[in-house]
Queue: 2 jobs
Job 1
Amino acid sequence: MMIRRYDYGSPIFTHAIAIPQPVCTDEMPRFTVEKNGESVSFRVQMDEDDQIFGLGESVRGMNKRGHRYRAWCSDDFSHTEDKASLYASHNLVIFSGKSGVFGLYVDDPGAVTFDLGYTRGDEAVITSENGNCSAYYIEADSLIGAVKEFRHIIGRSYLPPKWGLGYIQSRWGYTTEEDLREVAKNHRERHIPIDMLSMDIDYMEDFKDFTWDAKKFPDLKAMIADFKADNLRVVPIIDAGVKLCPGDPTYDEGVEKGYFVKKEDGSTFVGAVWPGKAVFPDFMRDEVRQWFGDKYHGMLEAGVEAFWNDMNEPAIFYSEEGLEDAYAKADEMRGKNIGVYDYFALKDAFTGMSNSMADYTRFYHDVDGQRIRHDKMHNLYGAMMTKAGAQGMKSFNPDKRHLLFSRASFIGAHRDGGVWQGDNFSWWSHILLNMRELAGMNMCGFLYTGADLGGFGQNTTEDLLQRWLQLGVFTPLMRNHAALGTRDQEIYRFRNWEQMRDTLTVRYALIPFLYSELVKAAMKDDMLFRPLAFDYPADKRACRVEDQIMLAGSCMLAPVYEQNARGRYVYLPEDMLMIRFRSAEDYDCIPMTKGDHWIDLAMNEFPLFVKKGQVIPLAKGAECVAQVDAVKLTLLGWLEHGTAFTLYDDDGESTAIDLDKGLTLVDVQVKDGDITAKAEGIALDTSRIILG
Amino acid sequence: MMIRRYDYGSPIFTHAIAIPQPVCTDEMPRFTVEKNGESVSFRVQMDEDDQIFGLGESVRGMNKRGHRYRAWCSDDFSHTEDKASLYASHNLVIFSGKSGVFGLYVDDPGAVTFDLGYTRGDEAVITSENGNCSAYYIEADSLIGAVKEFRHIIGRSYLPPKWGLGYIQSRWGYTTEEDLREVAKNHRERHIPIDMLSMDIDYMEDFKDFTWDAKKFPDLKAMIADFKADNLRVVPIIDAGVKLCPGDPTYDEGVEKGYFVKKEDGSTFVGAVWPGKAVFPDFMRDEVRQWFGDKYHGMLEAGVEAFWNDMNEPAIFYSEEGLEDAYAKADEMRGKNIGVYDYFALKDAFTGMSNSMADYTRFYHDVDGQRIRHDKMHNLYGAMMTKAGAQGMKSFNPDKRHLLFSRASFIGAHRDGGVWQGDNFSWWSHILLNMRELAGMNMCGFLYTGADLGGFGQNTTEDLLQRWLQLGVFTPLMRNHAALGTRDQEIYRFRNWEQMRDTLTVRYALIPFLYSELVKAAMKDDMLFRPLAFDYPADKRACRVEDQIMLAGSCMLAPVYEQNARGRYVYLPEDMLMIRFRSAEDYDCIPMTKGDHWIDLAMNEFPLFVKKGQVIPLAKGAECVAQVDAVKLTLLGWLEHGTAFTLYDDDGESTAIDLDKGLTLVDVQVKDGDITAKAEGIALDTSRIILG
């Protein structure tokens, strides 16, 4: 077990590493280091069956081999399998195979490419394009060992309050207080569990950060209080770009203090986002983060307890300069009989101006008095906005955990907040992507994560939403979110809403278990979700499973992700109990032996597999987290002998988390065919445990 | 068994139906017919487990339930699962479930939507948007019965010459004679089997139809003759749009004769495609098809024997009118501080002008003296271009089968040529799409079909190409094709090219079998590829299999379509022999029992399943179709008793196909553990047959 740091060029401090490592000057093991102009590359040969894990939020399999990725935080909603970049940059890769387990973390906030068997199937080449980076070589006895080692040096993962595990209903398009109240009512009336309503850009006044439209929300404070009384919280969005709007305090203060990023000539950079022309806080600076974080206090004072940070790659729809270039192109073409290549160039001038490299090279950050061009540290921007928000929330309420999740991220931000998996689509393939990203993101420290259930872009269908919720039941961040212009996708909109409600009851019944496992994973630098390769490294079949995932130490998930399917194949690397859920009260417990199985799963059924010899606790369903009864639990499992596990619980919100204090031992004894279980302060029902 | 025709509005004659049916005046069975303004809808309730098949070339599963499709031939390369429309319009749906098997074919060349359990999960609504259509209600005892009944009235499917089953190497970017010779040489030198080189737009002079660039191809005739001597044929592309180019004979003749589509004011419609400004032959007119078809003669005289028709949805990148509107939008926005919604509108003005409804409503067709606006019969345009090409090739060489395949299609075109599955991407998910579309297209009569192996757009990888070729081995049209700007994807470019070559040897060894089954399928209105639901309707599991497909009457395919996989699950609806191919000479024969199996498949291995009790013939590998030895065959199968099958063969090119004459009975006898097999004129090796 070791981590060795090697520096190249002039590394930029990223906050990723929490425990600084000494710089090594010997040769990096295994990798050939090559310098080409500015860039520095790390090359390694691979055996035919070697696998690669990591890269957090990224497309394709959990085994990342066979594609070329590029760390470059991108506002790109079309997560097709060709994409090199999504919203996040998580520069960790871990190799596993014939010659053992080793990994590389490239701490570089600029672009880093990962050619993982793309150019040559038998070779991986990782390149820091600017050549300024700290590269951490990792070696371990196991995949999970490598992850824990890495997670140790990047510091403890963010933990949300317990109510952060509640179901969130969201939509770009909830415009008024009435909209929110209507959504809340429709859930509560039907007893569809829910804890939060998230508010997209519609709530703001002209898309100005830290404002709300007083016409649409005449008494925000009262609304929030009403919701709170009903165990509901609102989660407003905060965008990275600040509207260019003299008179708006955020804008005015930022201008006055010189807090917005500037161009080479010292003038403020202007790019357009939702508010039209906007300016961008230089989150790389301590004092700017402090200031921006403090801006959250206004809404916190109104009773808001949770936020999501968006558009923080940063997304830039266009700049004046980009627009001028496009107009110039149009002038050039006008009146000419333009051929298709000219026409494509014209079209590209108008489409290519969004999130363009031209804009990302137009402005600069101040880093400890040094001026660094944005593109050299682009991938850090969102993470630093998250840090700002986290600081602001912490300073407002130092003793309580804050709820915050972000779109863009960089390793380091895993200490400050959660991450949702960005603007996905209502595609069946995105159920699987959702699941696979859980594993990658857990490796990189992001535990509070999940995808937009039902899909953000495009139109959902009732079967898609139903199957997706069946995975969402297990993801710490559980949000149904959809884009403006797409089909309504609140559960109650659909013919089969009762089945979906029943699915949600399972989520709430699992909260004592999920909360316990989430906290333990964070405190122990562990993963909540692991590829099977991590738990069964000697099992060749298990190592290549891409549509199942381990949950905590005891369970395995195998979601249905195919339209019109009524079941699926599942590979059990050991004997397991299948709990086939229909609701928190209605489920089958079926012992299954190690090996391959087809399992029937009606539209309203979904499985959770529990390793033989282990038990998990299930509460009764509830309509909000606060009402989950964590002291009356049913144990589910398949046992030959006694077993035991620890269950963590606490007040759900204090920042002082003490594992030793919060853990309760659940002791299950089997004697002469009788099962008894004991845990201090918890009433346990063992009647569903299967012996054999 | 019955087909009943119902007419609504003023149906436009589409050539789809080859055997005219009488018009019924009673109520259509099962469907509720609703008129709303212009449109006419057909509504039917569905049971929870009912399935829907059909729709030919379209996204998602073979079971089409759960999505909203729209028949609208579209030049859209991004075949994501949300897409309602691809290049073709194949308006057949067949329902199968509790209340039996029935279907609907909407013979309407305008837009038709198929809401198949999208708006409501338990309801299908099919809508002719213009309300002018003949709707054919189909009822049958079985899915295959419904297909055969429908296929009977739409007429016999196109059959290519036998060499059309050869491997085609293609690329947008083979610019010169040297390029083609180089590609040919690289295949032949390495003994990679190949029969054709297809030529994309690069070969033309300024993208003018029926020209070739004399600088790049100084002696086309000699080149073609050289290739022919090496058993290679070239397949030039023909585009629908004719360059607006006074002096070019195609343009001049068309203008003189008034053959191009016109706007309302009688002026010729001008839209831009590859050549820049272009005009569009009115393929709806007999005399225009005759004229355009005759234009193929020039290249046929130079020795060309095969063509592909492209851009015939028709694709229109922009029109002058569309461009002016976009410029006007730019003028309107210029200088203003535009908000994001304005900005989106500006961007849309430039991106939305391609294949726009605005352009499709700008021009008209002459149909029997009647002027019909293009959008009312849009979906017929490509089919009529195919008809033109087919007529031209037939008139040049009436006794020989022609090789022609098209991008856009409508039912009816299945009699005139093949169809490739359009501009797909180098995505793993497109292997599966490729397979599923085979089934849908076969239902609609298109037998000579296949997808661009390795993927057209985006960059391929060696593993993707390898796995895709393993499916392509079985598709009648077998072409490796890639777009300009993407990675080179000829087999010989890759480290593991020898494995891919070995894969191709299996294709050639299977040609006697595939050719026989293709011809039989066409002559008997049968499908070459069928969903398992068609062959095992009583097997609930089989009915929902979406990643396996039946091939002919005896076989089943189960391709690997997952990156980094080393095997896959397969469901056997009955006992089958797995032939696990590595090459035509190297394969395992493994008897497997009915049920679920995991099968190991190394990167160079792929399975073909043969039903127990049946045998299939395998020739030796060959480097071109002409060299396939069809009279020395090895029989593969798993037998308890004797069996027999018929093998069709002929000269491979004459148009007079006589099943009775061409069929040879292969009689396999099993007696006392000995196997003997006889077939007139064929030497049979039975040593690989497994008894038991």
Job 2
Amino acid sequence: MDVLTAGEAMMALRATGPIRLGSGFTTSIAGAESNVAIGLSRLGHTAAWAGRVGTDEAGHLVTRTLGAEGVDVSAVRRDGTAPTGVIMFEQRLPDVTRVQYLRAGSAGSRLCPDDVEALPFEPRIVHVTGITPALGASCRDAVTALCRLARSRNAQISLDLNHRPRLWTREAAAEALAPLAAGADHVIASPDELALLGSGPPESIAARLLDGGVTEVVVKNGDEARSYTADGTRTVPAHRVNPVDSIGAGDGFVAGYLSGLLDGLDAEARLRRAHTVGAFAVLTRGDWEGLPRRDELDLIGLPEGAALR
Amino acid sequence: MDVLTAGEAMMALRATGPIRLGSGFTTSIAGAESNVAIGLSRLGHTAAWAGRVGTDEAGHLVTRTLGAEGVDVSAVRRDGTAPTGVIMFEQRLPDVTRVQYLRAGSAGSRLCPDDVEALPFEPRIVHVTGITPALGASCRDAVTALCRLARSRNAQISLDLNHRPRLWTREAAAEALAPLAAGADHVIASPDELALLGSGPPESIAARLLDGGVTEVVVKNGDEARSYTADGTRTVPAHRVNPVDSIGAGDGFVAGYLSGLLDGLDAEARLRRAHTVGAFAVLTRGDWEGLPRRDELDLIGLPEGAALR
Amino acid sequence: MDVLTAGEAMMALRATGPIRLGSGFTTSIAGAESNVAIGLSRLGHTAAWAGRVGTDEAGHLVTRTLGAEGVDVSAVRRDGTAPTGVIMFEQRLPDVTRVQYLRAGSAGSRLCPDDVEALPFEPRIVHVTGITPALGASCRDAVTALCRLARSRNAQISLDLNHRPRLWTREAAAEALAPLAAGADHVIASPDELALLGSGPPESIAARLLDGGVTEVVVKNGDEARSYTADGTRTVPAHRVNPVDSIGAGDGFVAGYLSGLLDGLDAEARLRRAHTVGAFAVLTRGDWEGLPRRDELDLIGLPEGAALR
Amino acid sequence: MDVLTAGEAMMALRATGPIRLGSGFTTSIAGAESNVAIGLSRLGHTAAWAGRVGTDEAGHLVTRTLGAEGVDVSAVRRDGTAPTGVIMFEQRLPDVTRVQYLRAGSAGSRLCPDDVEALPFEPRIVHVTGITPALGASCRDAVTALCRLARSRNAQISLDLNHRPRLWTREAAAEALAPLAAGADHVIASPDELALLGSGPPESIAARLLDGGVTEVVVKNGDEARSYTADGTRTVPAHRVNPVDSIGAGDGFVAGYLSGLLDGLDAEARLRRAHTVGAFAVLTRGDWEGLPRRDELDLIGLPEGAALR
Amino acid sequence: MDVLTAGEAMMALRATGPIRLGSGFTTSIAGAESNVAIGLSRLGHTAAWAGRVGTDEAGHLVTRTLGAEGVDVSAVRRDGTAPTGVIMFEQRLPDVTRVQYLRAGSAGSRLCPDDVEALPFEPRIVHVTGITPALGASCRDAVTALCRLARSRNAQISLDLNHRPRLWTREAAAEALAPLAAGADHVIASPDELALLGSGPPESIAARLLDGGVTEVVVKNGDEARSYTADGTRTVPAHRVNPVDSIGAGDGFVAGYLSGLLDGLDAEARLRRAHTVGAFAVLTRGDWEGLPRRDELDLIGLPEGAALR
Amino acid sequence: MDVLTAGEAMMALRATGPIRLGSGFTTSIAGAESNVAIGLSRLGHTAAWAGRVGTDEAGHLVTRTLGAEGVDVSAVRRDGTAPTGVIMFEQRLPDVTRVQYLRAGSAGSRLCPDDVEALPFEPRIVHVTGITPALGASCRDAVTALCRLARSRNAQISLDLNHRPRLWTREAAAEALAPLAAGADHVIASPDELALLGSGPPESIAARLLDGGVTEVVVKNGDEARSYTADGTRTVPAHRVNPVDSIGAGDGFVAGYLSGLLDGLDAEARLRRAHTVGAFAVLTRGDWEGLPRRDELDLIGLPEGAALR
């Protein structure tokens, strides 16, 4: 098992026009951690996702889709007392997407330490995000338990800060995420998210994290990504692309980054792969639907209008 | 104002195939009381619907759609602290529809007496259903408050028992609905629902209700409807049709029945109109989308294959 | 050239749901005469259709579609001063279709004698319907001119009475259609349409037409068709099918009947083929889209659930 | 009542591909004046639209849609003798849209003074466009009558010149629009349209209009808008956006401008709001479907790829 | 492992209208053996499918879909030298479906003994059909090899005769299928298919098979199924349903039958479950999409118009 | 007859999303030669296409579509022993299209000299491409036979090199295409394709071709096109457009170029028309669907956001 991750995966509804005008929805699944698991599986790594879904059709959709993508869902629990969460997307303007959650009281938000602390996997990496702790106390405890499991099995811990302002305040997020970051090996954040972990410029915050035992801090925005390690700082510019749907870019980036780690790539090559997988995410519709197989990685960078015939 | 009604109206999602296979959804609104209000408005009556919706796009969809159908939504309250409820339909087999609610904690289920007790309308009829009291204590109180308002303004009270087994037990329903029925002028029920109000055959239960002050008890199934009044019992068979989508049949029936009441039709004619509007509901997709305008009532009964050219 | 026909062909819009709710439309073409021409072409006969279309995209759609079906459209005139007509269909109930015309002032309704009187074809049959004369005086004259052309070239004349109550009154129809029928060789009508040509039972009206020189009178309803000729009367029951879309049934019937005539079938076999082609029309969506090729005629009558594998 | 407007609203059909290839249509409504009324209603103003529709389903679509958007349609007249007009759009190239009208003889084009001269509203602004007078003499008279009503009720008059070359010549337009402009308080035009009202550069034409009693002349193109008033000239550049569908841009601009007037904004702020609402129109599909609610105005200008979560 | 099966699975294209008119396609997968595997997996059994697919997207679709349904595809081979086969369905008439194969030279038809003879599974049942041997010599040998493997691992062999007239003649089929049937434990056939195995009435052919060592012969048509065993003959009538799409009925029947075998049901109960699963197949679109989970088996037989709320 | 061409035309399936995720397909036809024939027909020239199709529905789709576009298909042969070929397109990234052929053993690839050597047409130009010879020996011979026919009827020969790396190697292509080019009057190629015909810069290769008897060599890429003739070299830049779908650009270019030749335009004007028709191809979906009629040629170059009203 290369990577184990846990969190909430929801039924994702994408409006085909304005919701208020009665436009319909296409259906998929979404969840930062499950997106990363799919991205890794498509690149040929083995990945498991743990979490709770309802016994409703949406829950079957979640596990069916992850299973289809080769993600190990044997540890998923079905909770007959709560519905699977729903996330709705409406592209209000070409560059502005409105997101609504129907996840309060969802099965996924009932994740608890018992769901993860005895998982039978021996992963090389455990990946968590800052979304799960925002879903409630039992979720917060579950993430802590998962990191404990990682330590006990000598797995590295990867943390994507992933701040969601609709779920909690910056203060609450900072309080919960600081200890998680301190205990992680790899911390991935936007500049704005990194600021949850301290004051000062990114390089100062990163330096403090490295001092505290973190192996690598990755800070990225749409234009470039920077890796801070004990060996120094490396910056790699992103591919210049015309985004089709920017949702999922961060999860694609993380999948590419972790894939690079697993393949033993150096910091620059890891960031390049992260950018490439992120570019696939923004050049295709959906959070994860367009993520690349390994044999597709070199499609980014083909001449314009290329027909593979 | 002919009819005032209140309850929960939700965004309705109809799966275009199996949800678990990732089929999309078409969107509309649903709610027993709002369905009846639309049915009445289409028949030329004036109707208002009261209730709560969220400040989300789904809430705008609800009020926009009711407004489009000419239903007075000036009394609708927007609740910024809870989402608009969602109901999902999946036609599992031609004759079997699976229904899932995402209405726990919804704005609509926060309806409370304050929302209805000072409504400015002077309706001839106030219509309530047995669904609203099943949504929680404040909803139950709101229905009671609405019936009080009806009495104080000399409006007749119409009650559709509408038992929903997924929302509460038969015992709980019986306890809450019995006093409502006792205070109503018109009680509409399936035989199974009527049994919530007492033991024995339908005619005995109806007789007891009439004795207690109810003006008319209507009992209907797919085949026929029967009106019990002090003037006697009348039975009218339903139209023999090949259903396309049986959801909404009951609400259409009620809209036709109340329309007959408002037009001063006699009991048989009322039931005939009820059957006709119900037939429109089952012959078209959606809860209310196919309900007839007044000038369309006679389309039921045209020769097969009729082209109106 | 086996058959020449003329009339108005329109862009046909079929609503995918209630028009008033903003449902979209699928697009095709429609026109009784062009439907017959397509039906004949599919069965392997040569057919030409004459008429006027606008220079708009809808006009191109009409000629493009007829050309696709192998109908000769070399005689079609493009009229830059009027739009191509539009017909809208809304299936209001499974058995009731609402039809609206936007054909007032259309290019097609400007058909005039000059459009048809010098056509270069040498058809075996000229087919006209009672719809064209209803579109205006110049159309009426055009039909008369076409029948004159038929006579002058020794073509048989086939007339489908096709009464459209929305276009004219029974009185106006009767006055215009009587002389057309009197001059035709084959008159096809429903019992109700036949009554435009005289009083009394169908057999009396048919007898008078035969006396006046008509070769064959065909009277059909959904259940059976009857042929009246000097050789006697023959009745053939229709296929018992469960209609999907009854629009176009009559035109399919006529195409099958004329195909039988062209193939030299006897009266009973002609009616059988007419019923078969009509059955294809009602078992498929659209006026003409499902009409059979010759090698498909025997698909009617296969065992239920047949898979051609 | 903030704004009263009148004109023709049609069923709008948008081809999903080339019409001649048989592509289908999505359905909505269109009309410059009704678009403005919707835009105002969405921004929280009260607006009424007057006009004629047929008694057909398309007519119900028009009033249903306007009612859904909160536009007062109580003054709309249904004309049983003519169909509701239809406008078809085909996007021939990304930047080129083909428009076809089926509005000759439409109910909407039968608007007459009697339809508007006794309207019960007390609007602050009456808004008219140069399209309505192009539809025929009775329409021209109706616009004149509406301006008279405005004067008699102390409402300001807003005129969007809106020249439609397919409906009349520049000469005819100039003759009809000059007196309307002279009597208006606010005249809105493109440079090309302004030239209908006189020769010379825009500033000269504007100066002459101001001299004649017009309060403000607004001249706009895709790049900027300029306001000429007695207080001087102000120029505000448009938002730089990548248009999705430029149809409806002008009506959005007018709705924003009138909204600014009603809110008492100064000239620059009015033009800014006009540009913002116009930007919503071009960044979304449809004439009016994407127009903003008041709480959405600041979505223009968010960072790229913003997800409102 | 409960059941192991092997054969060809193809990309299935279902035309949404007449192919010749340019109607589009929906996409799924199809294959008699993979349909059975899905049906078993949905009922809670473990099933593996072996076969070859191309390295093209269609091949990924096949394995992704089977994986999504929980079928073990670890033994599937990807063949980079041939495309995944395609099957096209066009519903020509409500009761007549046209099927076209693009499977000549497909990866699936290159199945060979080496693909199956060393499979690591220990199945209780090995299921094969009469389709695979029709695809070519190497396929025929592969089926033989698979039956040998079954014997060597003490698995029962189930054979669905499944004659496809488009793939081979009755004579060729009879020659190839007779030895397979003789070596099977359970033989399933229509009366017409059973006649491939001998002359005389079904009971005689069945008796000879039982004499030769077959444990059970099941003969079914749309109306009933009959089980012949040493213990006697049992007949169970099919559910009376109104078919939506009869393709896949046989595979559903087999899945239900094998499920009954695995659950240790008696012959009558096995046939009842077979009929029930078959009824799901014909009451839903697609070959396998509507097959039931175990908790859905009792949906067949609910009262008409049942809403599970 | 202006132009005669021959080759393989296939059913074209365009995935509406990722094929592996089960996205559906839209349907059309494709084939370099038939695309050119359609382009010419739309511009008002007469064109015939020769080739083989199956007797399946896809074959009817091919001839029906070409017939609809006015292309003469009277010489098309139906081959009952092989299926019509299929080409699938999946837009993997906005700029990268994946193409898969199901054309091995197709009817179209069985084209042979006998299919073309006695065609009854008297074309001014015979157009062939480098795709057909790549399909097999009989196809190669058929192209040779067609060029012989051209010579014998004094038609000019136009050759579009059109190298398809998936069908053959550069070496095989070079060997087969060199003699074809040497015998052609007009050779059209990309720089890369031209290099199949010799070494050195394009101008050297072109010079050698002109020396050998070729009248004109046209070399084009996305930015510009260059014509080499005995009269000198002319370069015309392409329209600067934002491509929607680059497939079909080359065929549109050729259609425009041949149209210019037929109209007697000079070299620069020919290239301009070629670029214009090519621009239509890349600005619209599909290979040929958006190609212009003659009255549409000037739509390229209209101001942005033009509405033709």
